[in-house]
């Protein structure tokens, strides 16, 4: 939380580094003398014995003949799979203190390697330093540095760009001596002090000779005699020792044979962003290196610059004219000390080096080149108008460039020019409670204070004074708290996947320790009474419950926290506490269990308490009776446990048994001793016990007090919501109580008064409004409440909840006690707080209210909605009424918020963003007449990218300025009268500004963005113009000054009240204006001068603005703004469209409008000769256009012709193409009649019964929907809406769920750290969804929405900075995204469908795409944050005719290959953008191309993949059209089972993976000419799934006519039986026979669409029997319980009984004739059950909602109808296209009961008893079920719905819903044991596990 210190980041993340970010134990003592002058690490630790070191994978010791010694070879297919590690375990430390680490190694040719070094700082923090040839760019966090390693190359390539040298080692790579200066690396990159080397991990692929450490610099090229003569020893340079030296033959030089790399290079004060050879050797004797090329400056990555304390901008060696001044800034250090007052982060430097220079500004008369951040002041030579642009750089720094000499001001002068006071804000109070949970609130030992979490802050609240104290340091929401017995030590846990625990000294507020928990989500903490032991409960990364115990005994003396023990358990734990009599013993409770835990000898063990008849209860809390201590008798040690059912158990700790049980019943059933009382008990959430009484908090909202025998209620207090926590104070006089609604209070037992400590919103606060008369504040929240607070006491005064609609905007009347509120249904209500009544309900809007405000004089109210309408209300009387409503005025896509509508301080002007997001409009407030319209998108002269407005704010009236926050993180200051740009501030925040506010005196500006608040010097007179404050854990929605200007309020996750420490200034005119002058708004012809600027006083002359009078145009303004022209104008002048005194733009009368518009359109040009704004006034009902013209000297056209051309360009509609092009490349999703669920009941975190184990199938319908990275081994593909990430070695799967629709395509970044996936529009969405995934943890980090139909293809740039996405033939858009922020940088619409897109592997600025008859070559140009693309469309050769170019890939530079739909491959020269050769490559369309070096792979819809040798193409490039194609050779060809849709190969194209439309992924090896099926699935709909009786296999069948047998252990296809031209409709596995089960008797029977039945033998993989008992298609089939009969049902309703032994049909039943059979099921029964003979019971269900139950004895040929059921249904189904199936099944846990679901009067599941002949139970369902299965192992029922929902019901009990299907779930089947479940949705089959089943 920023407010705690001088930084914008709190706790620094660990980025997944083992041990990083935590304090470490001191290393074993290694005497420094042992390490001098050097230490041979391999020899000292005896690596060859593998006792103090570890190895994994292929690690071997070899003898190298050239080096004449032993080397270690580490190799593997994946760098992390094989490694050598020192020391052996991560808990040990090498303790090597040498400054330099020498690594003698050689990377393996054409392979990648990784090296990890863990070093410890003097602050006892572990930092990982990694370098690898895999890394593409430098990355850094507070605990991890990643450096790309550039392997040594031949001299001829030494001057190649660095990005061309990255990657695998070349074939001629040398042995290398790498010298790492560990001290300098930590100091330079992280500003930390090096202590010692903790561990080393060398990963494949490399050869290692030795590792050494030393404090000396060893020079391999210097002999001992040369060193003595040059006296190098005094300079710290020594010759290389023998153990570290490489052999050098006589007559040769060391540097000619080997590489020497020192990093950082000697004398470097600036960091480089890669490790590479920089000079022939170390500069012996301090001499400069001989090669002058090596001294070229390097370009710094942004991640490098972010870590510097003092930064100097390094310019390119090329001369760049017209540069801006260099003004270096520094980044302040980050401090987080909780007890100190809250501090800010000042922008700019705290101290500057004296020798730094400042380049002054020279008047060149031309616009300067804009760089990333800088301070620029310039004036255009023609217009003589100056615009000041203040660039704030990044979050804390400012950059600039300039040509002239100069001197920086002194430190004292710089210090005088910073924003004072520092800090200017101090956190006073937070209104909020909880965030992660509301069950954590604790008493301090002195009974005077309460401690509770508020999101990421821990608050201590004094009971009497109500003062708050804050514990700050967590970066995510606090999930648990715990005190030791004396309340001197506080422990807090942080939520999130990387959970950490902090230990605090409670009296001082300082953080004593912070450590990682290795638990993904820590849910509970418990301290021992002494504070020596801490215990926590959470979930590991697999979702399994984990208990960890730590030793905290030494933490108060500065010691470390050590883990005593940890344990994984399958039981549920809701609460855990350490016993008061023994620190090593714990007690826990949860669902179905109470357990006792004990730590002994480092092992944590547990034993369950025998619960007897109470074993099925859900236990929620536990408590020890006060007074339990170690001296008490062992037999008296008991504790109490409460439950959801109202039971309270007293447990005997010594005997591990229940001593007594009571059940608390609600009134009038308070008889706790009788447990057989009918009715539901009180669901108890929390319990607390003192020595005299017990307190309980329950779900019904009551806090109750009981005597210890629970005989009757002593007292009770009703709360507004369920009570989540109760806690009796240490003195027993107060009871703390919290509720789920965010209430925190206590009950005073002496006075019986209930005291409120905190009331808070239950969700994020959306907006607030304040008034200064009664000093009140109103807030609205996502919890659907409107609350009014007292600004003095910050206590809640009112709480409103609307019956309909959710509040989203609020505004206080400035002079009356009237509150206005806008809702998401379009309603605007006004309340009278004086009478607490509703005054008026306005219904002018019909959708979400986006803006709501009053004018400062209180005469008017304004509201806007999401559809763009704007309403004006008169508030002269108490009941407001509507004056005017305008439609389509406010931008619908500009977002909503407090800055959507703003009114000037004199109540004259209204400003908003609209009619589109690129335009800001100013209107007359009293009439809504338009005065000014400013196009924001054209205000940046140096960019052609569109900028849009996100918020507006008026400056105080004397200034006459309007502030506009833009999407490019700028604040534009405009003249509110003329619209001229006064100045701009950039960048303001890392993300767009969400709120901005100015103080009344105009001195200070508040901005909010992301999670931070900034306070700015509005005049920008300081070096440090702003201070940054953090504290919110969620984005800040709004920030504002209080009416008295003494405080600042910010809202987001909670309400923060800050003290504003700046002294108020007497009201005076702004700087630069004489105090005697009045300051009216500037009108035409007036000038404003003397503006105070940066570094001095700069004059800003605003020229006269003269514009011809515009007539009324239309009541419907335009909805879009024209795109800026490519050529930038020489000057900028945004003129007023409406002058003072002119008639309004919008007229009330249509007659006036018609009179003013005679019919033709005319153009009005600004009268100023220097103006560059063209105002086009079109005909009626057309759009008002403000565009930027081309430079006049470049155009010879008349103004009228230019206007006509612009009008034509603007009004042209977006091209749409509904005809599918002649290419299979375009994705078409499977037809789905299913809908999305309207309600969803996800299981609570940690309580999921089902776990997705595996997915069977690959979506062959996708395009490019499989990715494989051969370097990292990452392999992912799609199946429906699921991304399956599979380990190719083990076959295990991970499943990423984030899409709701079928995924069309995938793309993986080049470093395999980010995956992008795209799917269609979800129900209700207007755009497709693109998900961005973090590969490491499988989390979706961003969701992108832009394309309207489907995403065709995606690609990452070479440096992974950009992501390009391509829409399909209906969308026809191409979009470019920034992968750092995932903001849309650029998008355009293309007139023809585009089929494929690819980035150049040689430059991130080049990409290409293919379309009909052409290749489009794009060039990316970037200026600062603005990006635009230029395109050149190159037509295909005429000889091809009208052809579609369907695929492309880049080859060796400068070649580009493209495939066509007629089978040709064209080769293009990217330098000239022309096609110079082609050849016939296939018979069908080529949809996949992959190129590596001189080999090309093509895949087509002819089901073939072909490998081509294209080495001669580069030579033929120069021959042009005469090039011959016979030099392109076909090397290999493989035919697969379907059209090729995806392919991924290694760097040599020797092996790879290919996907086909048949739903198969093939492993291809060209060297062995083999194809092996990796993944397979059904191409069409799956019709049935079932398990084998022994659950080793499962079977599926589908409409493709196949029956497939899968192994459940490996999920591989074992056998496939294919019947051509038939659809397999149903199948069944033969049950266990009476005789011994064997492999020979495994059979599957399947029914087909032609009426045949086939019996297949699994062991012999053949069909054994074919029968034809039906004339129509089969719909259901089943084996009898003994497997001797086959029951089959047909579409005509006939049921046939056949014998598989004889193949004869022995019986046909026609009872269901006329209605298709949907279910056949058999079960066993007692022979005489139900009064009929036979050992088998079976049922048949037909689609007419009839169920017949039969008893049979097949050996005796008996079959008797037992019961016949008919279920009613409505005559005409409403809202159903097709009727759901009728399904029935025998209930396994209730003998003689069956379950029925189907179309009926209600959506429900019916339990019918065959004994009672009636329905005994009904379970309501959200939809009609489409599939049904009952678990034989537990009381679970699985139901599939057409709404893509899988519901698991515990009968009776709660329901859990699961997602993951993209269509109706038409099949589900439990395994015989009930531990597995199969579900089918279209062609996807999902295997679920029930861990507790």
Number of strands: 136
Distance between the termini: 44 Å
**Continuous helix count:** 10
Proportion in β-strands: 35-45%
- Main sheet characteristics: 7 strands, mixed
Report the uncertain regions.
Answer: 1-31, 153-163, 279-416, 669-678, 1067-1217, 1634-1639
Categorize the overall geometry: globular
Class from secondary-structure proportions: mainly beta
Give the radius of gyration. Answer: 38 Å
The helicity comes to under 10%
Task: Quote the average pLDDT.
Answer: 78
What do you see in this structure?
The protein has 1893 residues and is mainly beta. Helix content is 3%, strand content 41%. It is built from 10 helices and 136 strands. The strands form 33 sheets. Strands 1, 3, 4, 6, 11, 13 and 16 form a 7-stranded mixed sheet that branches. Strands 2-5-12-7-8-10-9 form a 7-stranded mixed sheet. It is globular, with a radius of gyration of 38 Å.
Give a nutshell description of this structure:
By secondary structure, the chain is mostly beta strands. The chain contains ten helices and 136 strands. A hairpin with a 3-residue loop joins strand 9 and strand 10.
Structure keywords:
1893 residues, mainly beta, seven-stranded mixed beta sheet, 10 helices, 41% strand, globular
């Amino acid at each position: 939380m920023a407010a705690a210190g001088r930084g914008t980041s709190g706790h620094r993340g660990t980025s997944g580094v083992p041990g990083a970010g935590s304090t470490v134990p001191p290393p074993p003592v290694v005497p420094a003398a042992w390490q001098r002058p050097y230490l041979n690490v391999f020899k000292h630790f005896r690596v060859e014995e593998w006792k103090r070191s570890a190895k994994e994978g292929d690690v071997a010791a070899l003898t190298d003949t050239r080096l004449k010694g032993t080397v270690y070879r580490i190799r593997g297919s994946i760098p992390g799979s094989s490694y050598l590690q020192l020391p052996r375990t991560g808990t040990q430390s090498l303790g090597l203190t040498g400054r330099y680490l020498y690594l003698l190694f050689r990377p393996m040719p054409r392979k990648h390697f990784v090296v990890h070094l863990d070093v410890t700082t003097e602050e006892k923090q572990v930092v990982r330093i990694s370098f690898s040839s895999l890394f593409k760019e430098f990355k850094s966090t507070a605990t991890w540095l990643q450096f790309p390693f550039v392997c040594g190359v031949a001299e001829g390539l030494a001057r190649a760009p660095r990005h061309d040298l990255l990657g695998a080692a070349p074939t001629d790579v040398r042995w290398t001596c790498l010298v790492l200066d560990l001290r300098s690396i930590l100091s330079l990159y992280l500003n930390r002090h090096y202590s010692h080397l903790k561990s080393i991990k060398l990963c494949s692929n490399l050869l290692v000779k030795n590792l050494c450490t030393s404090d000396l610099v060893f020079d391999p090229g210097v002999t001992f005699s040369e060193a003595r003569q040059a006296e190098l020893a005094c300079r710290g340079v020594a010759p290389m020792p023998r153990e570290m030296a490489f052999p050098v033959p006589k007559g040769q030089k060391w540097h000619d044979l080997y590489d020497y790399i020192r990093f950082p290079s000697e004398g470097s004060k600036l960091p480089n962003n890669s490790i590479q050879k920089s000079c022939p050797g170390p500069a012996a004797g301090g001499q400069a290196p001989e090669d002058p090329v090596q001294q070229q400056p390097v370009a710094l990555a942004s991640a490098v610059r972010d870590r510097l304390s003092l930064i100097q901008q390094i310019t390119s060696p090329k001369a760049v004219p017209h540069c801006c001044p260099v003004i270096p800034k520094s980044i302040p250090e980050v401090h987080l000390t909780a007890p100190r007052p809250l501090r800010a982060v000042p922008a700019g430097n705290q101290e500057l080096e004296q020798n730094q220079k400042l380049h002054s500004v020279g008047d060149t008369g031309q616009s300067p080149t804009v760089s990333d951040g800088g301070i620029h002041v310039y004036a255009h030579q023609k217009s003589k108008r100056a615009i000041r642009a203040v660039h704030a750089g990044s979050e804390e720094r400012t950059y600039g460039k300039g040509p002239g000499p100069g001197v920086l001001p002194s430190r004292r002068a710089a210090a005088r020019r910073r924003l004072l006071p520092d800090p200017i804000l101090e956190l006073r109070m937070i209104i909020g409670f909880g965030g992660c949970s509301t069950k954590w609130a604790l008493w301090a030992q002195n009974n005077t204070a309460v401690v509770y979490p508020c999101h990421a802050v821990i608050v201590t609240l004094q009971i009497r004074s109500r003062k708050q104290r804050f514990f700050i340091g967590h970066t995510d929401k606090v999930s648990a708290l715990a005190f030791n017995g004396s309340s001197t030590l506080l422990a807090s846990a942080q939520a999130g996947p990387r959970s950490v625990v902090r230990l605090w000294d409670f009296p001082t507020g300082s953080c004593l320790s912070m450590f990682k928990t290795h638990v993904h989500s820590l849910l509970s903490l418990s301290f021992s009474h002494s504070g020596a032991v801490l215990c926590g409960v959470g979930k590991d990364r697999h979702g399994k419950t984990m208990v960890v115990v730590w030793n905290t005994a030494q933490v108060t003396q500065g010691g470390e926290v050590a883990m005593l023990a940890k344990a994984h358990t399958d039981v549920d734990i809701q609460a855990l506490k350490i016993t008061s009599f023994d620190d090593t013993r714990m007690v826990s409770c949860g669902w179905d269990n109470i357990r006792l835990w004990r730590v002994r000898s480092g092992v944590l063990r547990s034993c369950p308490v025998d619960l007897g008849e109470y074993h099925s209860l859900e236990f929620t809390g536990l408590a020890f009776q006060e007074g339990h201590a170690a001296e008490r008798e062992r037999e008296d040690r008991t504790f109490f446990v409460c439950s959801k059912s109202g039971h309270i158990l007293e447990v005997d700790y010594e005997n591990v048994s229940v001593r007594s049980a009571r059940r608390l019943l609600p009134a009038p059933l308070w008889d706790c001793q009788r447990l057989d009382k009918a009715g539901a008990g009180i669901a108890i959430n929390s319990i607390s016990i003192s020595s005299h009484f017990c307190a309980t908090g329950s779900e019904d909202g009551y806090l109750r007090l009981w005597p210890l025998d629970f005989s009757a209620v002593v007292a009770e207090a009703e709360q507004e919501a369920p009570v989540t926590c109760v806690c009796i104070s240490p003195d027993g006089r107060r009871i703390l109580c919290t509720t789920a609604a965010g209430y925190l209070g206590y009950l005073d037992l002496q006075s019986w008064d209930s005291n409120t400590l905190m009331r808070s919103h239950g969700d994020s606060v959306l907006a607030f409004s304040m008034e200064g008369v009664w000093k009140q504040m109103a807030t609205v929240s996502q919890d659907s409440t409107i609350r009014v607070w007292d600004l003095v006491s910050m206590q809640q005064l009112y709480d409103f909840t609307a019956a309909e609609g959710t509040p989203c905007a609020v505004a206080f009347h400035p002079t009356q006690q009237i509150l206005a509120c806008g809702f998401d249904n379009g309603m605007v209500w006004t309340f009278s707080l004086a009478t607490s009544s509703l005054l008026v309900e306005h219904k002018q809007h019909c959708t979400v209210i986006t803006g709501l405000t009053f004018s400062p004089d209180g005469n008017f109210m304004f509201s806007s909605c999401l559809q763009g309408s704007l309403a004006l209300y008169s508030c002269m009387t108490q009941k407001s009424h509507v004056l005017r409503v305008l439609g389509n005025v406010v931008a619908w896509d500009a977002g909503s918020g407090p800055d959507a509508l703003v009114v000037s301080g004199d109540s004259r002007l209204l400003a908003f963003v609209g009619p589109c997001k690129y335009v800001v409009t100013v209107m007359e407030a009293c009439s809504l007449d338009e005065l000014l319209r400013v196009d924001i998108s054209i205000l940046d002269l140096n960019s052609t990218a569109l900028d849009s407005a996100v918020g507006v704010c008026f400056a105080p009236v004397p200034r006459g300025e309007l502030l506009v926050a833009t999407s490019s993180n700028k604040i534009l200051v405009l003249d509110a009268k003329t619209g001229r740009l006064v100045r701009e501030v950039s960048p303001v925040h890392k993300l767009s500004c969400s709120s901005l506010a100015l103080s009344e005196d105009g001195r200070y500006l508040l901005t909010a963005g992301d999670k931070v608040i900034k306070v700015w010097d509005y005049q920008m007179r300081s070096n440090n113009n702003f201070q940054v404050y953090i504290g919110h854990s969620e984005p800040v929605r709004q920030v504002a000054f209080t009416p008295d200007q003494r405080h600042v309020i910010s809202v987001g996750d909670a309400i923060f009240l800050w003290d504003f420490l700046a002294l108020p200034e007497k009201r005076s005119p702004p700087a630069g204006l004489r105090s005697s002058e009045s300051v009216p708004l500037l009108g035409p012809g007036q000038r404003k001068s003397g503006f105070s600027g940066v570094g001095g006083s700069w004059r800003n002359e605003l020229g006269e603005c003269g514009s011809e009078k515009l007539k009324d145009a239309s009541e419907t303004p335009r909805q879009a703004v024209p795109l800026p022209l490519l050529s930038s104008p020489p000057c900028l002048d945004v003129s007023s469209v409406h002058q003072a005194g002119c008639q309004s733009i919008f007229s009330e009368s249509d007659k006036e409008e018609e009179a003013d518009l005679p019919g033709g359109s005319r153009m009005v040009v600004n009268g100023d000769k220097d103006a560059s704004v063209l105002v086009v006034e079109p005909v009626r009902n057309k759009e008002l256009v403000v565009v930027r013209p081309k430079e006049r000297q470049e155009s010879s056209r008349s103004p009228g012709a230019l206007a006509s051309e612009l009008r034509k360009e603007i009004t042209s509609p977006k091209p749409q193409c509904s005809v599918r092009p002649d290419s299979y490349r375009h994705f078409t999703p499977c037809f789905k009649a299913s809908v999305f669920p309207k309600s969803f009941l996800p299981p609570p975190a940690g309580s999921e019964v089902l776990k997705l184990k595996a997915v069977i199938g690959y979506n062959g319908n996708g395009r490019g929907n499989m990715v494989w990275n051969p370097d990292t081994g990452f392999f992912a593909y799609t199946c429906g809406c699921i991304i399956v990430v599979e380990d190719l070695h083990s076959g295990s799967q991970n499943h990423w769920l984030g899409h709701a629709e079928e995924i069309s395509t995938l793309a993986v970044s080049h470093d395999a750290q980010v995956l992008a996936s795209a799917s269609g529009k979800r129900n209700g969405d207007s755009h497709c969804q693109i998900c961005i995934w973090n590969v490491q943890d499988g989390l979706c980090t961003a969701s992108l929405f832009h394309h309207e139909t489907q995403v065709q293809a995606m690609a990452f740039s070479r440096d992974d900075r950009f992501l390009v996405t391509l829409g399909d033939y209906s969308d026809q858009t191409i979009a470019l995204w920034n992968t750092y922020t995932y903001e849309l940088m650029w998008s355009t619409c293309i007139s023809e469908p585009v089929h494929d897109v690819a980035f150049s592997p040689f430059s991130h600025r080049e990409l290409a795409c293919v379309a009909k008859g052409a290749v489009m070559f794009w060039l990316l140009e970037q200026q600062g944050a603005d990006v635009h693309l230029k395109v050149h469309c190159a037509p295909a050769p005429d000889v091809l005719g009208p052809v579609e170019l369907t695929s492309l890939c880049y080859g060796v530079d400068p070649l580009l290959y493209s495939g066509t739909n007629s089978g040709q491959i064209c080769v293009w020269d990217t330098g000239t953008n022309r096609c110079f050769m082609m050849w016939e490559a296939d018979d069908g369309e080529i949809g996949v191309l992959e190129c590596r070096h001189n080999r090309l792979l093509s895949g087509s819809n002819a089901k073939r993949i072909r490998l081509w040798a294209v080495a001669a193409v580069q030579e033929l490039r120069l021959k042009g059209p005469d090039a011959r194609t016979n030099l392109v050779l076909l090397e290999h060809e493989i035919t697969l089972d379907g059209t090729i849709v995806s392919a991924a190969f290694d760097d040599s194209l020797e092996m790879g993976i290919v996907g086909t439309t048949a739903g198969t992924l093939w492993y291809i090896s060209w060297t062995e000419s083999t194809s092996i099926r990796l993944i397979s699935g059904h191409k069409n709909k799956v019709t049935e799934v079932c398990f084998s009786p022994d659950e080793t296999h499962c079977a599926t069948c589908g409409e493709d006519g196949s029956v497939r047998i899968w192994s459940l252990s490996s999920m591989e296809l074992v056998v496939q039986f294919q019947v051509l031209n038939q659809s397999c409709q149903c199948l069944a596995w033969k049950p266990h026979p009476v005789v011994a089960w064997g492999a020979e008797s495994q059979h599957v029977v399947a029914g087909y669409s032609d009426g045949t039945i086939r019996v297949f033998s699994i062991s012999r993989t053949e069909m054994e029997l074919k029968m034809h008992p039906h004339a129509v298609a089969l719909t259901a089939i089943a084996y009898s319980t003994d497997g001797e009969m086959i029951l089959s049902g047909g579409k005509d309703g006939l049921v046939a009984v056949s014998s598989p032994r004889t193949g004869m049909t022995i019986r046909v039943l026609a009872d269901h004739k006329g209605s298709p059979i949907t279910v056949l099921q058999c079960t066993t029964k007692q022979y005489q059950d139900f009064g009929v003979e036979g050992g088998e019971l079976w049922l048949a269900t037909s689609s007419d909602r009839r169920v017949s139950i039969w008893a049979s004895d097949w050996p005796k040929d008996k079959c008797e109808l037992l019961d016949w059921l008919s279920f009613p249904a409505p005559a005409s189904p409403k809202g159903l296209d097709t009727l759901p199936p009728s399904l029935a099944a025998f209930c396994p846990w209730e003998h003689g009961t069956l379950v029925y679901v189907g179309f009926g009067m209600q959506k429900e599941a019916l339990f019918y008893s065959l004994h009672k002949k009636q329905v005994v139970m009904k379970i309501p369902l959200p939809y009609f079920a489409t599939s049904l299965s009952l678990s034989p192992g537990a009381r679970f029922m699985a139901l599939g719905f057409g709404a893509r929902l899988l519901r698991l019901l515990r009968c009776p009990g709660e329901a859990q819903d699961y997602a993951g299907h993209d269509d109706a779930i038409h099949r589900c089947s439990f395994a015989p044991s009930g531990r597995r479940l199969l579900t089918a949705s279209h062609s996807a089959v999902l295997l679920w596990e029930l861990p507790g089943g």
